[in-house]
Write a structure and sequence with these properties.
The complex is a heterodimer of chains A (114) and B (115). Chain A is mostly beta strands and 114 residues long. Chain A has strands at 4-6, 10-13, 19-25, 32-38, 42-49, 56-57, 64-70, 73-78, 87-94, 103-105, 109-113. In chain A, strand 9 (87-94) and strand 10 (103-105) form a beta hairpin. The termini of chain A are far apart. By secondary structure, chain B is mostly beta strands. Chain B has strands spanning 4-7, 10-14, 19-25, 32-38, 45-51, 56-59, 62-67, 72-77, 86-95, 101-105, 109-114. In chain B, the strands form 2 sheets. In chain B, strands 2, 4, 5, 9, 10 and 11 form a 6-stranded mixed β-sheet that branches. In chain B, strands 1-3-8-7-6 form a 5-stranded antiparallel β-sheet, with no helix packed on it. Chain B starts with a strand and ends with a strand. The chains are: A mainly beta (114), B mainly beta (115). The interface between A and B is medium-sized, with 25 and 25 residues.
C-alpha cells in the first residue's frame, strides 16, 4: 500500500510565524498535492507538483508556497501564518494503475494559528 | 471555470434504506470521477470511481452512475448500515493546458445512518 505520511498531526503556531508542513510518500510518485479542508467548503487545492523542482498553483495559493527538492517529499510553507489559515491540511499522492488518477491522502495536519 | 457541485450537504437515512448523493461538474473534458469517504478524524479514502467511457459501476452495496451529456454523476448506497455514516466527497478531473490533470472536489455530504 502507498503510504503518505504527514509529519505532524496537530500544530499550533503564532500569527506571523513561518510554518512548514511536511509530506512524504514512499512509492516514487511524480505527482503530489496539498489541499486544505474546511467545513462546508470541501477540499480545496493549494499547490501541486508533477515532479522534483516543479510546482503549480492550485485554486487558493495565496499566502502559501511549496518546495519539492526530492521526489518523495513535498513541503507546504506558510510564509507568515495568519488566523484565516487555521485549517486541516491534507497531502495527497497520485496512485498508479488504470490511468493513475486515484489519489491517496495522508492523515492530515490540523493547524491552529493563534 | 472548474467547478463541482455536490448535493445534499447533509443526509439522514434509516438503517437499511438507500442513500443517493449527486454531483455536477463543469468541464466537459473531465474523464474520471472518484468518490471518497471520510470518517470522523480520518483521511479521505477512495471507495469507488468511474471513467467517462462507462455509465455505471457497482461494488457490493455501492454504485456510481454517470451521465456525460448532463455532466452529472451520483453515488448510490443500498441497505445502509451505521458504519456508512461519514462525509462523502465526489470529485472530477480537470485537464490542464500542460496535459496533466487535477482533481476538483465537491463540498461534501455528511451522511448519517440512524438505527
Amino acid at each position: 500500500d502507498v503510504k503518505v505520511t504527514q509529519s505532524s498531526r496537530y500544530l499550533v503556531k503564532r500569527t506571523g510565524e513561518k510554518v512548514f508542513l511536511e509530506c512524504v510518500q514512499d512509492m516514487d510518485h511524480e505527482n503530489m498535492f496539498w489541499y486544505r479542508q474546511d467545513p462546508g467548503l470541501g477540499l480545496r487545492l493549494i499547490y501541486f507538483s508533477y515532479d522534483v523542482k516543479m510546482k503549480e498553483k492550485g485554486d487558493i495559493p495565496e499566502g502559501y508556497s511549496v518546495s519539492r527538492e526530492k521526489k518523495e517529499r513535498f513541503s507546504l510553507i506558510l510564509e507568515s501564518a495568519s488566523t484565516n489559515q487555521t485549517s486541516m491540511y491534507l497531502c495527497a499522492s497520485k496512485t498508479p494503475g488504470q490511468g493513475g488518477y486515484g489519489y491517496t491522502f495522508g492523515s492530515g495536519t490540523r493547524l491552529t494559528v493563534v | 471555470g472548474e467547478n463541482v457541485e455536490q448535493h445534499p450537504s447533509t443526509l439522514s437515512v434509516q438503517e437499511g434504506d438507500s442513500a443517493v448523493i449527486k454531483c455536477t461538474y463543469s468541464d466537459s473534458a473531465s474523464n474520471y470521477f472518484p468518490w471518497y469517504k471520510q470518517e470522523l478524524g480520518k483521511r479521505p479514502q477512495l471507495i469507488i470511481d468511474i471513467r467517462s467511457n462507462v455509465g455505471e459501476k457497482k461494488d457490493q452495496r455501492i454504485a456510481v452512475t454517470l451521465n456525460k451529456t448532463a455532466k452529472h454523476f451520483s453515488l448510490h448506497i443500498t441497505e445502509t448500515q451505521p458504519e456508512d455514516s461519514a462525509v462523502y466527497f465526489c470529485a472530477a478531473t480537470f485537464i490542464l493546458t500542460g496535459g496533466g490533470n487535477k482533481l476538483t472536489f465537491g463540498t461534501g455530504t455528511q451522511l448519517k445512518v440512524e438505527l
